[in-house]
Amino acid sequence: MLALTVIVLVFGGSSLYSYNRDLEVVRYVSATIKAVGWSSSELETELLKFDHALTALSAHTADKAYVQLRFELLWSRIDTLLQGQENRPLREQPGVMSLLDSFSRQLEDWEDRVYALRADDRAEILALRQELAPFRQQAREINVDSFSGDKVWQQLDIIQDVRLRSSLYLAGLLFSGGLMLWFLVRENRRNRHLAYHDMLTGLPNRMFFYQLIGQALNRARRERQSLAVHMVDLNSFKSINDSLGHEVGDSLLREIAVRLSDTIGTQGQVARLGGDEFVIIQRLEQAEDAGLMAKRLLESLSRDVQLPDGCLSPQACIGTSLYPEHGTTIPELLSHADTAMYYAKHSRKTMVQMFEPGMDERRLRRQKLAVSLQAAIEQDRLALHYQPIFRLNSGAIESVEALLRWHSAEHGVVSPLELIAVAESHGLAHRLNDWVLSQACRQLHSWHQAGFDWLKVNVNISPNIFMDGELAGTVSRVLHQSGLDASSLVLEITEDTSLWDTAGSLDILQELRELGIEIALDDFGTGYSSFSHLRQLPLNKLKIDKSFVADLATDPRAVSLVKTIISLAESLDMTVTAEGIELPEQQAQLQLLGCELGQGYLLARPMPVEDMDLLLQDRLLCSRSA
């Protein structure tokens, strides 16, 4: 806007000086020749372009998107000619206003037909061209008249008369034209930059990145050098946007872009592919430099980001692939870097991962498992096994823990850990959780009806399900559908889960307790719970991790630790369950320490429903005979 203002002022000043007494003539010339001639030419040009677009669509040399574009530009030109003040002289020409009004109505009638047009609709295309022909002819006549009619010859006579006084005007016009050209060149460069760079970070965008990596690969081939591609992804970026706002998210992305650029320096280039995903091309002197750079990038990203209201500690994962070791084409390198990043994102050990042969097969297996798992959930082809939890002093069964099992016809026996990992990484965790809860509650309700109304069922809840805020609603719905009393359900939540957000965990646990269910803290001792933290949480039970139980018979420190845990639980009015009892000595030691409940292979292995039925019946008969 400022540039156009400068041009208008310079042009107006030079024109005013040379046309001080001929203002009406200049206005007439500019309004009639320039406005009428240019506008009529543009009208005819847009009509021809639309006609040519229809012809090209019929000849399969253009697609329907191009036809729609030409149609929209033509319609925009008609609207401009009808409304623009600068086009008033054209509208005053005989027959122009009626043509514009008529054609505007015709465009409204054509809109649905044009957008529904296909290349094989030759009859429709021909019909449109025939309907367009009269307007094109009228536009042509107006255009010819605007350049060679009687009024034009009169204007030329007037122009000839003032030509001698126009030298200063022409000088000003040339200067203004040069200035406009300069602005156009500058604007073109700006537009090119915007087309090839990300507006938020200023980094090369996806389109420009493919050019850059193509050039880098060509240079690496010629010079027989190595190349590294680092794929960077921020963890939990969506939650940052949702909780802190998009302004904070944008600030974080800009800071990440600066850090990546500063870290890679002159060794490569950084691009933003979209969202929170960045990619770095690194020129290598030796292959080892790629791993070192990936670690430097991670260290740079892991530093706190200062915000107006505090600081944020971003977490990222990086996957790396090498040219030519891991691929020689752009798709191969990007795919392998993305695969390595996927493993880094789902690894508990490292956030930096170099691509390794076989990763693609493992990732493909997980993708296939995800598809099969979805079908297994829908078709009810999963199974639950139940492991009894016994009262150690009497040997009576207090409850059963529901354990997920899957024997796939395609993949064989899939371990529960892999099954849960696949579900969580492919968006199936909620559906799987619903299935397990529903199956376990329905089965327990069936056992209650069979006379085992004292029995409880323990169901494990994954961290993702626990923290999404919908668990209480899900549990309430499942209990209602199954008809199970809430007091018979025990949800097992890992120790680390409840530590993610103490305040949030307290609210979630309180909602669950208000339903009447029991909460057990699973794998206790492997996380970082403090005594004050345990005191805040409304828990009913602690489950001692099997790693402590395994050492009871050989390590006095393990005995002391388990004794402390039991004492702590008693002080907080919690019941203790020992997991992983496999030796008689372990069971005896736990009984001496006052542990109330226990489970493990020594007592009973996980078993299908049929075997669990027999065990319950056997225990019931034994108790009656006693």
From TrEMBL:
Domain EAL: 366-620
Domain GGDEF: 225-357
PROSITE patterns: EAL, GGDEF
Annotated SMART domains: EAL (SM00052), GGDEF (SM00267)
Domain of life of the organism encoding this protein: Bacteria
InterPro entries assigned to the protein according to its UniProt record, in alphabetical order: Biofilm_reg_signaling (IPR052155), EAL_dom (IPR001633), EAL_sf (IPR035919), GGDEF_dom (IPR000160), Nucleotide_cyclase (IPR029787), Rev_trsase/Diguanyl_cyclase (IPR043128)
Protein name per the record: GGDEF-domain containing protein
